[in-house]
Amino acid sequence: MRLIQQLKADFVYARGALRTLARTQPIAKHPTRVFPAIIDELAARYGDAPALISDHERLSYRGLASRANRYARWARAQGLAKGDAVCLMMPNRPEYMAIWLGLTQAGVVVALINTNLTSASLAYCINVVAPKDIVVAAELLERLDTARERIDAKIKIWAHGENAVGLPRLDIDLAQSSDAPLTADERPVLTIEDRALYIYTSGTTGMPKAANINHYRLMLACFGFSGIMDTKPSDRMYNCLPMYHTVGGVLATGAMLVSGGSVFIREKFSAREFWNDVVHQECTIFQYIGELCRYLVNTPPTDAETRHKLRLACGNGLRPDVWHEFKRRFRIPHILEFYAATEGNVTLFNFDDREGSVGRIPWFLASHFPIKLVRFDYSTEMPARDKSGLCIPCKPGEVGEMLGKIMRDASKPAARFEGYATAQETKRKILHDVFEHGDMWFRTGDLMRQDRDGYFYFVDRIGDTFRWKGENVATLEVSETITGIPGVVEANVYGVAVPGHDGRAGMVALVIDPASFDLAVAHRFIGEHLPSYARPVFLRIRGEIEVTATFKQKKFDLVREAFDPSETSDAIYFNDPRAQAFVRLDPALYQDIISGRINI
User: Which of 101, 127, 200, 587 has the least C-beta neighbours within 10 A?
Assistant: First the structure.
C-alpha cells in the first residue's frame, strides 16, 4: 500500500514538474527576453482582456503595457540609466505593477519599499540601495516624512497623487510621455542576468535585507508558478498580499499574467470581506501566506464562504493545526503548499496535498535540486560539525537546518544565490565546507524535519527555537498545541531570560475569547499535551498579536518586555509549581522569581 501511494505521489509530482519545466526551460535559451518585454507580447495577444483589477481601477493587457511604456519613457527623460535604483512606496493597486514594469524596462532597478515602515527602519531600507529617486504615493508622504532627515538629501522625491504640496507630481509629469511601444533605440540592452528589483526580507529580527532579484529570477518566479498552479486565461487570482513582497507582487501577479489570466488586487487583507470579494470577483485561485488562513478559520461562518469558484489555494505557511479545518470548512478543492525564500535557492512543492508538509524532492529530481538537512547546534546557532570539520546530515525525523547547494554552473542559475545589496549580509548566508572542502551552501535559517517518505515539515525559524531545562523548544510546535485550548484564538510563543537560570523560559502571548477561556482548563490542557520543558512558564493575555505585513508574528518587543508586569498593562500569569496553577503575576511575585526565592 505504501509503495502504491508513493508511486501515485511521484506521478502527481512528475506531472506538475514537467508542466513547470515546459514553461521555464525557454528562459535561459532566450537571455534577452526579459519580463517587461513579455508584457508587450501579452498585450498583442490578449489586448483588452482584463489583466489587473481593483475596486478603483482596471487595466487591460494593452492598458498595462501602455502605462508601463509611459513610465519607461519618464525614466529616460529623468536621465535614469541602466542599473540606477529607484525606490517605490505605494499601497496595493494595479498602478504599482505598471510603475515597476516600466522602470525595469528602462533598465532601472526598483526597490519595493514596505509601506508600513517609518523613521530609522524606513531610512535604512532607502539608503542601503542608494537610489537616485523615490516614488511615493501621496497618502504615504507623512510616513516618508518620518525618515526624511535620515535620507540622503540628493535623492529626488516624486509624489504620485493629489495633495502633495511642494513636491513634483509623477502622475502629472507622466502625461508628457508617449504610451506607444518603445523603439529599439529607446530600449537598453537587458539580459536575464541584469538586476530588476530589490525585494526586502520581512525583518522579523534586525533590519530588513534588500535581496537582489535579477530578470532571470523574476522570469522564473512568474513562469515557474504559472506551471506549478497550471494557470489559464480563464483563471482569476485573488491577491490581498502586499505587493512589495515576492508572493504578492510577483508570484500572484506574474504567474497569472503570463498565462492570460487576471488578478483582483485588494489593498489590504480583510477577513470579514474576504469571501464576499472572492465570490463577487469570481476568483478561481487565491494566494495565501503565514497566518492568513488561521484568521479566516477564526471568523464567524458566512453564506459566501462556500459559494466560491476556487479551484486552488496556493501559498506557504499554512500550519498543520489549521490545514484540515481550513480545507473542510471552506471546501477548498486543492491546497498547494510550497516552501521558498525571496533570495534563496531552495524551493519545495507539496503537489499531492500531504497535510502539514511544505513539500519534497522526489528521487528522480534529487540530483537537480540538491538540498540537505544538517544537524544544528543550538548553543552556537550554527550547523554542527564532525571531527573532520564537515556538517552532519540529519536522519529521518531529526530536526535540522535546511541548506541548498550553491552551484557555480552558469547553466543552472536557479541554484545560484544572488545575495543582498550589501556584501556583509550576503556573506552571512553562505556556509562553506559543508559536505566536502570547498563547497558552498545557502543557509535558509529554517529548521525542518523529513519523514521516511521524503516529505519536509517546517519546525521553526532559527532564533525562535530556544533551550530550557536542557531541551530544545520549537515555538511553532508549542503554539500549535496551545491553540487547541478552548477559547484560545491566537498564540505567540517565545523564550525569555530568567535570572539564575540557563536558557530561556517559555512564555506565550494569547488572544482569547473571554467567554470560553478558562485558566484552570488551560493549565490542565498544557500539562496533558506538552512535556515539562515545553510548558509555558508565563502567559500574557493580549487584545491582539502584532504581525508583519506577511502575517509573521512579531516577537522582538515581547521578548524585550519579558514577564515584568511593570512593562505592560496586559495581564501576566505565572505557572506556579507550588499552586499547580496559573496565578496572576504582581510586582511582589515578580521579585520573588527574579531573586530566585521561587524555583521554576
Answer: 587
